[in-house]
Amino acid sequence: MFKKAKNIDTAFRHIRAFSLVAIIASCTICGLAIFKSLDFVAKMQQKIYVLAGGKALEALASDRRENVPVEARDHVRTFHQLFFNLDPDDKVIRESIGRALYLADASAKREYDNLKEKGYYNNIISGNVSQILRIDSVVVNLESHPYLFRCIGKLEITRSTSIVLRSLVTEGELRNVNRSDNNPHGFLIENWKVIENNDMDIKQRQP
């Protein structure tokens, strides 16, 4: 009788141990499944599909810190192209300068006001002048915030009688701000100034 009771007790212990192992294994499998599911969802949320030419192209979202150098240089390029690429059309000039001023502080507005006061934009319109900026390099120092930058390029000014090539060098700082429709990069140019704007070459156009 005692032997039978002992066997029952041993069997009960075995069943309890087996049940405990089964429960631990089940919890481990469930936890692993949940972890993998959350990881999969997180990776899927980082995927962006861009529709281009009727095709869905996959892009990957990333931390902004990984793209700061690229976005900073592109912000500087975009501002300068909007500010200096001009055509003899008052509406086009106002729209382009207006978009540029969203990307910079009052230092850019002062430069615009100075040029406007000197009749620069009126001369472009009345003389049917076109102006294109070709950027050679944009250097941004990311070691400390705000980020110092220097933009080097050439201005090609096409008049009815000549084509003037001018060297252009500007400097300023980039400060982090919130992104918006008018400022998608999330930077603001501060203390912007033109360091150099000199004639390099003048070519006469054939009448």
Short account of what is shown:
The chain has 207 residues and is α+β, with helices and mostly antiparallel strands. It has helices at residues 2-45, 64-84, 90-101, 106-117, 120-126; strands spanning 47-52, 55-60, 130-141, 147-158, 162-176, 187-204.
Provide structural commentary.
Helix 2 packs antiparallel against helix 3. By secondary structure, the protein is an alpha+beta fold. A hairpin with a 3-residue loop joins strand 4 and strand 5. It folds into two domains: 2-48; 64-204, VirB8 protein (Nuclear Transport Factor 2, Chain: A), CATH 3.10.450.230. The model has no long low-confidence stretch (mean pLDDT 84). It has helices spanning 2-45, 64-84, 90-101, 106-117, 120-126; strands spanning 47-52, 55-60, 130-141, 147-158, 162-176, 187-204. The chain has a four-stranded antiparallel β-sheet, covered by helices on one side. A two-stranded antiparallel sheet has the order 1-2. The radius of gyration is 32 Å and the shape is rod-shaped. Keywords: Membrane, Transmembrane, Transmembrane helix.
Keywords:
about 210 residues, alpha+beta, Nuclear Transport Factor 2, Chain: A, 4-stranded antiparallel β-sheet, two-stranded antiparallel ribbon, 6 strands, rod-shaped, transmembrane, Conjugative transposon protein TraK
